[in-house]
Amino acid sequence: AKTQIRWLQGLARDIGLDIHRASSDLRPTALDDFGLERALAALMADWGRRFGITAEFQAVGIDQRLSPEIETAVYRAVQEALTNVLKHAHATQVSVVLERRGRELRVVVEDDGRGFDPDDLASTGPLIEAPLGLSGIRERLALVNGRLRIESTPGGGTSLFMQLPLPAGTEDHG
């Protein structure tokens, strides 16, 4: 009986850790603690240090908190873009620009990596890794009525342009 109790306690502890990880994956605590601008700045600094890639971040016009849904979508889209850079681009520099213009939020992620032909994405199968990352970004943005445009050329790096509409009278959510 003691062995079963210890096993159940271990199982409960593991389930608790899994739930905590899942909830963090859904909404990073850094967003709640610091807001999108500071959370992305920290993400970029940490990511650049960890992988030895020059990572620059700039924010323009972010004078108030955005809705939790928009902050989460943008944060996760940038994370996915950085993962793609690491897996596929072989870049030495990455920059992220977050800019609010009126009722629109723009996010640009650029790298100096090996690039690719975006037209090739349409012809690849659904199980190819690179398109899955970009599909994930598109899906996240679509949840908040955002869109993604890709510019890339083989040997010339890649730029991702994300645009998200902001509701009229966006108010402070912090």
Radius of gyration: 19 Å
Total strand segments: 5
Major beta-sheet overview: 5 strands, mixed
Number of helices: 5
Low-pLDDT runs of 5+ residues are: 125-130
Mean pLDDT: 86
For the termini, the CA-CA separation is: 49 Å
Query: Which strand order does the major sheet show?
Result: 1-2-3-5-4
Fraction of residues in helix:
40-55%
Task: Provide the succession of SSEs.
Answer: HHHEHEEHEE
Beta-strand percentage range: 15-25%
Structural class, from helix and strand content?
A: alpha+beta
CA-based shape: globular
Topology:
Blueprint: H1 2-26, H2 29-34, H3 36-51, E1 54-60, H4 68-89, E2 93-101, E3 104-111, H5 129-142, E4 147-152, E5 158-165
Parallel strand pairs: 1-2
Antiparallel strand pairs: 2-3, 3-5, 4-5
Notes on the structure:
The protein has a five-stranded mixed beta sheet with strand order 1-2-3-5-4, covered by helices on one side. It is of the alpha+beta class and about 170 residues long. The chain is built from five helices and five strands, in the order H-H-H-E-H-E-E-H-E-E. The protein has helices spanning about 1-25, 30-35, 35-50, 70-90, 130-140; strands spanning about 55-60, 95-100, 105-110, 145-150, 160-165. It is globular, with a radius of gyration of 19 Å. Helix 3 runs parallel beside helix 4 and helix 4 runs antiparallel to helix 5. Mean pLDDT is about 85; it is low at about 125-130.
Give a summary of the structure in a few sentences:
By secondary structure, the protein is an alpha+beta fold. About 3% of the residues have low confidence.
Keywords:
single chain; 174 residues; alpha+beta; five-stranded mixed beta sheet; 5 helices; 5 strands; 48% helix; 22% strand
